């Protein structure tokens, strides 16, 4: 495979990138980058989707200085970095785009800096829709590293003014994404509670159409509301779903930070505790949350 130097590209220039993890997010991100002309070498444990057989082969197909984006579950990020590190050299950059805890970022960056390897953390939002619509990117890292990667970020973000932020130093990207997901918990739960109330009322006889009517002209319109409408089109009573809403950890971390900084976080904390309650309940509101998680992220759900 021909390789080209990454160097310090100008904004908009085509780049070369290694992508480790080609699941729902990583695979779609790689496709979006390739469609824009970037060269992406992808590695995944599933040989059916991987371009190379190993991390060693991946790094061998990238010309130094390399940029390698990791999109793996948070629990295996450090093991992946440890496996990559001996294969990299001075000037290379590792980007962690998974849902790592922000407090893990600084120790990683410090460890890699001793080897001359850069580290950037990126909170990524966009779920299974990002390939088409673009991904919101919340980036943490040194200015020189972020600037070098801007052609990649420009391609992945949505078109227009919004959807990208250099949030601060290493750790800031994952911190911003943690807060983003905490807010997401609260928004989803508000929609879900309203949905359940209308289901149980004696006044509203067409709940799905009320949800649909809110999509234009109201102050509560949003993409999440659009996805709830989509879920109800597919399953009007959400009868195929169990009222079980998993949590990925970031809601918990947000509440922990609220306690640490004495920030009242009533809505987000209540929405997190409601997810815990969902493991013992069959509330329609929790079915709505399960449906929303499936719609925007392709997350696994339990069927009823």
Automatic annotation (TrEMBL):
PROSITE patterns: 3_HYDROXYISOBUT_DH (PS00895). It holds the Pfam family 6PGD. Keywords: Gluconate utilization, Oxidoreductase. InterPro entries: 3-OH-isobutyrate_DH-rel_CS, 6-PGluconate_DH-like_C_sf, 6DGDH_YqeC, 6PGD_dom2, 6PGDH_C, 6PGDH_NADP-bd, HIBADH-related, NAD(P)-bd_dom_sf. Residues 173-300 form the 6-phosphogluconate dehydrogenase C-terminal domain. The keyword Lyase does not apply. The keyword Transmembrane does not apply. Belongs to the HIBADH-related family. Belongs to the 6-phosphogluconate dehydrogenase family. PANTHER family: 6-PHOSPHOGLUCONATE DEHYDROGENASE. This is Decarboxylating 6-phosphogluconate dehydrogenase. It comes from Luedemannella flava.
């Amino acid at each position: 495979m021909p390789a080209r130097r990454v160097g310090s590209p100008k904004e908009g220039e085509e780049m070369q990138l290694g992508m480790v993890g080609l699941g729902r997010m990583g695979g779609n991100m790689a496709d979006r980058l390739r469609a824009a002309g970037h060269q992406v070498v992808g590695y995944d444990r599933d040989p059916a989707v991987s371009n190379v057989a190993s991390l060693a082969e991946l790094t061998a197909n990238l010309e130094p200085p390399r940029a390698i984006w990791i999109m793996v579950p948070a629990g295996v990020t450090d093991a992946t970095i440890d496996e990559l590190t001996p294969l990299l050299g001075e000037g290379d950059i590792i980007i962690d785009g998974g849902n790592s805890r922000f407090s893990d970022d600084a120790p990683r960056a410090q460890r890699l800096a001793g080897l001359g390897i850069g580290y950037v953390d990126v909170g990524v939002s966009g779920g299974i829709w990002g390939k088409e619509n673009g991904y919101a990117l919340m980036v943490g890292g040194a200015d020189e590293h972020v600037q070098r990667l801007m052609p990649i970020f420009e391609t992945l973000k949505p078109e227009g003014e919004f959807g990208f932020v250099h949030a601060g130093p290493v750790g800031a990207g994952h911190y911003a994404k943690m807060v983003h997901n905490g807010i997401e918990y609260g928004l989803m739960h508000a929609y879900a509670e309203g949905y359940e109330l209308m289901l149980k009322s004696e006044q509203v006889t067409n709940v799905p159409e009320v949800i649909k009517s809110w999509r234009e002209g109201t102050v509560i319109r949003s993409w999440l509301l659009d996805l709830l409408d989509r879920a109800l089109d597919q399953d009007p009573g959400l009868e195929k779903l169990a009222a079980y809403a998993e949590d990925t950890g970031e809601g918990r971390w947000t509440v922990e930070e609220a306690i640490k900084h004495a920030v009242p976080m009533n809505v987000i904390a209540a929405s997190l505790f409601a997810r815990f309650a969902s493991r013992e309940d069959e509330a329609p509101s929790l079915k709505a949350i399960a449906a929303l998680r499936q719609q925007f992220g392709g997350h696994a759900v339990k069927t009823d």
